[in-house]
Amino acid sequence: MNPKSLLDDFGIAPKKSLGQNFLHDPNALEKIVTTADLMPDDFVLEIGPGTGTLTEKLARACRRVIAFEVDDRLKPVLDEMLVAFPNAIVFYNDILEVNIARLFHAQPYVVVANVPYYITSAILRHLLESAHRPKRLILTVQQEVAERLVATPDDMSILTVSVQFYGRPQIVTRLNPAAFWPRPDVDSAVVRIDTYDEPPVAVPDEKTFFRVVRAGFGQKRKQLKNSLSGGLHLDSAEAAQLFEETGIDPRRRAETLTLTEWALLTTAFIALES
Ligand code: SAM
C-alpha cells in the first residue's frame, strides 16, 4: 500500500529527523528481497521497518524477522500490516542500544535494512564490530556512501577500510528518489556486504589496527609521516623506522593505502611499542 495514504489513515506525518523516507517501488522491494538470498530457515534482523512493507516480504521468505523501530508512533501501522505474519516481531528500540550478540546468541542471521541515512556509519560499526556479526547485510544507503564502501586505493576512507576489513561490499542497484515517499534529496543504492569468517588481512591485534587507521586518516589529506606521527605520538626516529620496516613511502596519503599496507603498519607499530 502507498505509504502516504497508509500514514494519512493513521494521522502520522513522517519525521525527517528519523530518516523516514519509505520505499514503495515494488521492483526495488523485490530486488532487495531476492538479493538477500533468504532460505526458509533464515533469521533476519531488520532495522527501521517503518510501515512494514519490506518486513512483510521478508517474513514471507524466512523463518523469523526481528525488527527494531525507534518510532513507536508506527506501532498501530505495523500491528495492522503484520497481523498475518506472526513470525515478524517488532521491538520499539533504538538499534544502536541493542546488544546484537546477546539477541542472536549463536544463531546465524542476515541484516536487511533501508537504513535511516543520518546514522548509516554508526549502524555499520554497530553491526560489524559486534561479537556476533551477520552473515550478510543488504542495506539501502545513500549512493555516495555506497561508493565509499566499495572504493579502491586512492579513494579509500576510514569507512571503506572499516567495512572492507569485515566483509566484501558490492553495489547491487541504484534507486531513484522517486522510489521513496517522501522523496529524499539524494540518490540511493542497495549494497550487499558478505562478511568474512576471518579478516582478509592478518593483524596481530584488531584494536591496534583501527588505532593506526584512525591516526592515518586523522588529519585530512596529510602525508602519512605527519598523520601517523601526530596520531600515534611517534618521534621522528620512530616514524622513520615504521616506514623503513614496511617499505611504505612516508609522503603517501591515507586514502591510497591498501588493507595489506595498513596491516603492515600495524605490525611494525606493535613491534616499535614492545
Ligand atoms: N523500512 C522502511 C521502508 O523501507 O520503507 C522504512 C525505512 S526509513 C528510511 C528508516 C526507518 O528507520 C524509519 O522507520 C525510522 O523511524 C527508523 N529509525 C530511525 N532511527 C532508528 C534507530 N536508531 N533505530 C531503529 N530504527 C530507526
Helix and strand pattern: HEHEHEHEHEHEHHEEEHHHH
Using the CA coordinates, give the radius of gyration.
Answer: 21 Å
Largest sheet: 7 strands, mixed
Hetero compounds = S-adenosylmethionine
Unreliable residue runs = none
- SSE class: alpha/beta
The CATH homologous superfamily name of the largest domain equals: Vaccinia Virus protein VP39
Compute the number of helices: 12
Name the beta content range. 15-25%
Shape, per Cα inertia axes: elongated
Short note summarizing the structure:
It is built from twelve helices and nine strands.
Mind explaining what this structure looks like?
This protein has 274 residues and is of the alpha/beta class. It folds into two domains: 3-195, 3-Layer(aba) Sandwich (Rossmann fold), CATH 3.40.50.150; 206-273, rRNA adenine dimethylase, C-terminal domain (Helicase, Ruva Protein, domain 3, Orthogonal Bundle), CATH 1.10.8.100. The chain is 41% helix and 17% strand. The chain contains twelve helices and nine strands. The chain has helices spanning 3-9, 26-35, 53-61, 75-81, 100-104, 120-128, 143-149, 158-166, 206-218, 224-232, 236-246, 259-273; strands at 22-23, 43-47, 64-68, 88-91, 110-114, 136-142, 167-175, 180-181, 188-195. It has a seven-stranded mixed β-sheet with strand order 4-3-2-5-6-9-7. Strands 1-8 form a two-stranded antiparallel sheet. Strand 3 (64-68), helix 4 and strand 4 form a beta-alpha-beta unit. Helix 11 (236-246) crosses helix 12. S-adenosylmethionine (SAM) binds next to strand 1 and helix 3.
